[in-house]
Amino acid sequence: RHFYSGKDEL
Amino acid sequence: MNIFRLAGDMTHLASVLVLLLKIHTIKSCAGVSLKTQELYALVFATRYLDIFTDFISLYNTVMKLIFLGSSFSIVWYIRRHKIVRRSYDKDQDTFRHYFLVLPCLLLALVIHEKFTFREVMWAFSLYLEAVAILPQLVLLQRTRNIDNLTGQYVFLLGAYRALYILNWIYRYFTEPHFVHWITWIAGLVQTLLYADFFYYYFESWKNNVKLQLPA
C-alpha cells in the first residue's frame, strides 16, 4: 500500500 | 474512486472554471475576494508538496496541477491583469490573512499525524482550507448585487465539500482502516460554514429573486 495512504484525495 | 468523490472533484473543478471563465471573458472580478483566492493558492501549495515525489495516479497528478495552476492564475488576474484589477473591490475585501493563517499554523504544529515538515504542512492546508472561504462570504454579505457567476462559484464550492463528506462515509464503510480524524473534522467545519449561504441561495432560487445575503 501507498506510503501516503489515505492522502489520495485532493 | 467512488461516485461521491468523483462528483465532488468535478464540482470543485466546475467552481474553479466558472470563476476563471467569469474573470477571463467578462474581464471583471467584481465580488470575488482576492484574500480567499490567495488563501486557496497557499492551501494547494502546502498540500501538494508530494506532487513530484509520490505518484498516486495520473488523475490525481493532473487534478493537482489544475488546482495549483488555476488558483495562482486567478490571483495573478486580480493582482496584475491591467483590466481585471480595476474591478477588484479592494475597500470591501478587508479580511486579514494572518487572522486565519496564524491560528491554522499553530493548530497544525499542535495537531498533526506526524511531526515532519510535510505532515505539518498537510494538516495546515486542511485547517486553512476549512476557513479560506470566510473572506469571500464576508465580501458577499457586503456586496448588494451578487452576480450569478459569483453565486454559482460559492454554491459549487459548497457542493464539493458536501460531496466529500458523502465520499468519506462511503469509504469508511467500504475500506478497511479508513479513519482520518483531521481531514474529517476540518472538512465538516468547512461544510458547516456554507450552511447559511446555502439557505439564502435556495431561498432566492425558490422565490426566483436575486441572491442577497442579509448584513
Low-confidence runs of chain B: none
Distance between the termini of chain A: 18 Å
Count of individual domains of chain B = 1
Shape of chain B: globular
> What string, H for helix and E for strand, traces the elements of chain B in order?
HHHHHHHHH
Sketch the major β-sheet of chain A.
Answer: none
Uncertain stretches of 5 or more adjacent residues of chain A: none
3D shape of chain A: elongated
Could you tell me which chain pair has the largest interface and how many residues each side has? Answer: A-B, 8 and 17 residues
Please give the share of residues in helix of chain B.
55-70%
Instruction: State the end-to-end distance of chain B.
Output: 40 Å
Q: How much helix is in the residues of chain A?
A: under 10%
Number of helices in the DSSP assignment of chain B: 9
Number of strands of chain B: 0
Number of helices of chain A: 0
Which structural class do the helices and strands of chain A define?
Answer: little secondary structure
Number of strands of chain A: 0
CA radius of gyration of chain A is 6 Å
Radius of gyration of chain B: 17 Å
Mean pLDDT of chain B: 95
Map the helices and strands.
The complex is a heterodimer of chains A (10) and B (215).
Chain A: no helix or strand
Chain B: H1 3-26, H2 34-47, H3 58-80, H4 97-110, H5 117-131, H6 134-142, H7 148-174, H8 181-192, H9 195-206
Helix pairs in contact in B: 1-3, 1-7, 2-3, 2-5, 4-5, 5-8, 7-8
